[in-house]
Amino acid sequence: MNRIVYMVLRNLYRAPYWFFVICRFCRENDHHTLEERYAFLSRMVKKINCSGRVEVVGRGVDKLPKKDGYILFPNHQGLFDSLALFATYPRPFGIVIKQEAAKWILVKQVIQAIKGISIDREDLKASVEVIHQVTEEVKNGRNFVIFPEGTRSREGNQILPFKSGTFKSAVNAKCPIVPVALIDSFKPFDLPSIKRVKVQVHYLDPIYPEEYAGMKTKEIASLVHDRIQREINLWQDQE
Questions:
Q1: Is the pLDDT score of 122 beyond 80?
Q2: Would you call 122 helix, strand, or coil by DSSP?
Q3: 205: which DSSP letter?
Q4: Which of 29, 41, 67, 134 is the most buried (most CB within 10 A)?
Q5: Range 97-126 average pLDDT
Q6: Neighbour tally for 175: CB within 10 Å
Q7: C-beta pairs of 132-140 under 8 Å, 24+ apart in sequence
Q8: pTM
């Protein structure tokens, strides 16, 4: 929390302009492309991270599928996760976010600007509709981010079991699945300090449809979970 306040204070003079531009992106008659919106948000996030004394390192970007139309599945460590992705991922993405968080000021506008989707986790019918919507948008060439834990882990770099239902859109769309290992992403906002910290985002080898064909979503969830945890463990062993 200390760092959030620090970031806000450091960027207070920029905030009105940023908010104005993002709100403009949300208008029905806005002419900016998703690429232009994403480029603006990425630059903004990089400035916020730098001012907040957070270094974000992206690895494995070259492994990402060349053709759009896939889903990234990162582990979930906290509020900083999206900032880490915006700072390292090179192309526009939509994101599936819980309905409660989608109501927060600025978060709401950013989600609208990138055409993300909010989900009511207690409403089964709404969840099915979101699965269908993501499936169709991915088929049409959009990339999405889904956090398969469903909620943030509070165990640092130890990740929670993945929910099998979060992989239904990928299976239905027959699209590549990209595991993403977030390392130390909990530190910026969970530690009561504003000392410099480093967050790492590792984009792992994609899992293509032919590799997971015939597997149940529960098996896919375990496969992605284990690859991410293994990457985190390997990196920690090297530190």
A1: no
A2: coil
A3: P
A4: 134
A5: 85
A6: 25
A7: 132/172, 134/71, 134/94, 134/96, 134/169, 134/173, 135/168, 135/169, 135/172, 135/173, 136/173, 137/94, 138/69, 138/70, 138/71, 138/169, 138/170, 138/173, 138/175, 139/69, 139/173, 139/175, 140/69
A8: 0.93
